[in-house]
Structures are given as structure tokens and as C-alpha cells.
Amino acid sequence: MAALVAERAVAVDAVLRACQVCQSVFKHLVSGETVVKADKSPVTVADLSAQAVVNSILGRAFPKDPIVGEEDSADLQGDQGKLLRNKVLALTNQVLAEPLSESQLLAAIDRGNYVGGSKGRHWTLDPIDGTQGFIRGDQFAVCLALIEDGQVVLGVMGCPNLLVDLEDTKGSRGSLFIAIKGHGAFQRSFDATNEQPIHVSQLTDPTMASFCESVMSSHSSHSDAERIGQLLHITKPPLRMDSQCKYGCIARGDSDIYLRLPVRADYVEKIWDHATGSLLVHEAGGQVTDIDGKPLDFSIGRYLSANRGIVAANSSIHSRVLQAVQQALSK
Ligand SMILES: Nc1ncnc2c1ncn2[C@@H]1O[C@H](COP(=O)(O)O)[C@@H](OP(=O)(O)O)[C@H]1O
Ligand SMILES: [Mg+2]
Ligand SMILES: [Mg+2]
Ligand SMILES: [Mg+2]
């Protein structure tokens, strides 16, 4: 497969500019007193601006490509949406080379309304993944992926608050991840251009592993994870963080196992919550399945309706982890 040179460069530029918007919103609207009073509107502003930025950059570079994006322009329409619309427009235009008009802004956001599916190519965007983490000033990620005939072929993820080296706690934050199907996974710091290839951990003994899981126990069951940990004789404490940063941490070997264990039987995962991250782990040498051991199926539409939960780990331990997951969940 061609190495998607143009798509890669455009996606990296779009994700980095969207990260800039998020950071600027956090600095001016969310931090300090606004965090306490947060009525969700700062998040909405950042979500919508980030989606407008990425979609308009993609729209200019690849006008024929549809996009499955998480957000839409409903809250920005009409007189009621005017205040929010003005904020989003100003933020979006801060980082775009060619400013958008109001109608172009709404159209850019709504380019994300594509239904997805198995034919041809489309992008999928989570403008802010880990909104809860964003509000807290913890981890969040701008996640963009290209899907061709139902297969994720390119993934770019910007994690503004993630240490480039998790061990170097005084080191720089802002990790950019890139994966191309068949060509590997890479990381670079936001403030440098040199990329390093990344690999999952080499661990073969699951007892030495650590879990990476959601902060939100409503998104992934912490108690089920604990039972699975006991079955595998894992003693290390779990690494908890919001967003697809978890996939990044597995892909670069900071942690060994990402579990997403369904809390509610009726929750169906969305493609933008997993497309980028799952390709990263796969290209870094790991395996990603659902809790039934099935590969994630991105060909159905906006949802991963054929899958339940997520199990990601390096290839040496994935099957043993899956076994423990199934044993624990069958009880
Ligand atoms: N009950 C639930 N179970 C699983 N995932 C859920 C959920 N409710 C919301 N989510 C998704 O979990 C994502 C965040 O995952 P994590 O907990 O790993 O940070 C959210 O993405 P957004 O923040 O983009 O809305 C949202 O799509
Ligand atoms: Mg998300
Ligand atoms: Mg989101
Ligand atoms: Mg959301």
C-alpha cells in the first residue's frame, strides 16, 4: 500500500492545529474559576472548534472524502446559537490560514455527518476524546483516522497533556502519535519534528503486566478489571487515564494491557473512540480485539455494533489476557 504521504501530512497539520484550539480554550475559558463553574459550554466550544478546524483542513485538501465526526452544528444554529457560534468562529479562525465565514463554519462542522460504512474511503474524527479529562486538565486527545473499505489505514492522535516520556515527569508534554497500516507506529513531541518508531512492551509474563484503564468506572468496569488482574496474578496498580491516550501508552510500552469492560449491556462503542488508537497498537506490534476475541469491525457505520468492549495487549500475552477476561466475565 502507498504510504499515504499527503494524507499523513494533512492529518498531522489538522490535528496539531486542533490541539492548539483546545489548549487555548483550556487556558482562557476552563482554567481557574471556570473549571469550578463549568456548565459544559467551554467543552462544547473546544469540541466544536476542533471539529471545524480538522474538517475544514480535510475539506480543502481532500474535498471528496466524507467524514464521520462526533459533533454537529445543532447548538450553533439560529438566534439561540449565536453566542456560541461567535466564540467557535473566533477560535477556529485563530488557527486556520484562510478564515471561515459563519456559513462555512457550520458547513465544516457538518461535514462530519457521514454515516460511514464498508465502501470507499472516509475519515473519522473525535475532536476531543476524553472530555472529562479535558475539563480536569488531565489527559485528552484529538483523534483522526482514515478508513478505506472498512479498514483503518492511517491514524493520527494529538495528546497535548501527555508526557513524551512517562518516566521523565519533568520532561515535555505534548505527544503526537502516527500510525500507517503496514508501515508502523511513530511518536514525536509537539515541539520537535523528528519521529521515533514505537513498540508495545516485550513482556511475556502477564503477572508482571500493568493495566491501563479508563478513569471513568462508568466507561469501563474497574471491579471486573480487578478480578481479571487477580486471575492473572497482576500486582502492579492500574494506570488510569482518560481518552485514547491509553492506546498510545500501550503502543509505546508504558503499560501492557488496555481493557475496556462493558458496564452496560446496551452501550455500543463509536468508531471515533477506537479507530486511531487501535491502529496505533496494531502497528506497534500489539493485538486489539473485543472481549469475545473478535477484531474491531469499522465497516458497519458510525458504531462498532458487532463488538463488545476492548482488549489490547502485546501479542505474547493477548490470548492469555483474553482468556482471563472471558473467565471473569462469565461469572
Ligand atoms: N457508558 C459508556 N461506556 C463506554 N464508553 C462511553 C460511555 N459513555 C461515554 N463513553 C465514551 O467514552 C469516551 C471516553 O473514554 P475514556 O473513558 O476512555 O476517556 C467518550 O468519548 P468523548 O470524551 O469523546 O465523548 C465517550 O464516547
Ligand atoms: Mg471520544
Ligand atoms: Mg469527543
Ligand atoms: Mg462526547
What's the pLDDT, averaged over the residues?
94
Rough outline: globular
- Quote the beta fraction: 15-25%
Instruction: Summarize the main sheet.
Output: 7 strands, mixed
How many β strands by DSSP?
12
Terminal Cα span = 44 Å
Whole-number tally of structural domains: 2
CATH architecture of the largest domain: 2-Layer Sandwich
Q: SSE order, as H and E?
A: HHHEHHEHEEEEEEHEHEHEEH
Q: Strand order across the biggest sheet?
A: 1-2-3-4-5-6-7
CATH class label of the largest domain: Alpha Beta
Walk me through the structure:
It catalyses: adenosine 2',5'-bisphosphate + H2O = AMP + phosphate; 3'-phosphoadenylyl sulfate + H2O = adenosine 5'-phosphosulfate + phosphate; adenosine 3',5'-bisphosphate + H2O = AMP + phosphate. Mg(2+) binds at residues 70, 126, 128-129, 273. One of its GO terms (biological process) is sulfate assimilation. This protein has 331 residues and is an alpha+beta fold. It folds into 2 domains: 5-197, Fructose-1,6-Bisphosphatase, Chain A, domain 1; 206-330, D-Maltodextrin-Binding Protein, domain 2. The chain contains 10 helices and 12 strands. It has helices spanning 5-30, 33-37, 41-61, 82-95, 102-110, 131-136, 222-231, 245-251, 275-283, 318-330; strands at residues 67-69, 121-129, 141-148, 151-163, 173-180, 184-189, 196-197, 211-213, 239-240, 257-260, 286-289, 310-314. The strands form 2 sheets. Strands 1-2-3-4-5-6-7 form a 7-stranded mixed sheet, sandwiched between helices. The longest helix is centred in the first third of the chain and has 26 residues, at 5-30. The chain is globular, with a radius of gyration of 19 Å. The model is unreliable at 32-39 (pLDDT under 50). One magnesium ion is lined by residues 70, 126-129, 131.
